[in-house]
Amino acid sequence: MTLEFSARTLLGNWYEQRVAENDTLQHGTDMHMESTMSSFISSVAEANGAISNDGQLTHGDAVIIKSCSEKYPNSFLSVNNADPLNFVSKQYYVNASMNSKVDKRGVFVLEKVDNLDVELCYGDLFRLRLASDIFPEPMYLHSATKSFNLQTLVSQKQVLYLAPIDHQRSLFTFTHIDPSFREDYVGTPVQPNEGCLFYHHFTGQCVSIHNTPLQNIYGLDYEIVVETQKNYATKQPTDVCVWKMVDGL
Fold this sequence. Notes:
This protein is of the alpha+beta class. It contains 2 helices and 14 strands; from the N terminus they run αββββββββαββββββ. The protein is globular and about 65 Å long.
């Protein structure tokens, strides 16, 4: 309810009322966005026959790929549909979004290559298809060896991008963080919210956040590169390479 103020109203009282109204509006907006996203993710999962909250990652699940980095907490993979690669049609940059809310640009559908009726395991090959219909055709995550047309916007490194399916370039896999246990974990189910290395199968490089801020129409993003970054003191990857797959439901 909006209050009526007179000429004698103190500035502090007026400002306090304005702040309260803005907070109420923002709360309502956030609730609406959460409700919309929940409905959207559920509809995606239903369309793919994968309504499940059993703590497993299975073929057809709606998922979000979030970073485990302390420097970029809660950032998530998100396509910038307003920024094509070097004006090449049907190829768009994928960045690490720092927005507090995940929107439709950051929800993907997990598509396993083999053993579709079994949950996702370490070493399994899979693809990630953008769940929303903001593009007229199905769009998948890709990477490829760096070239003139395929490189990151600022750092000119191997790029992660969204495009119509290319069967080799769209394959990814999850690998255990610790090199000592990688072979032992092959065939073991990947748990939701479990930190893993997100590898591009064709080039053998892993998805990583690069320290390059990108301001776009959606807010602040960070550049995503596909390369192996290691802490040479421990021989283990730095946390900018570590990601977790969050079950969208």
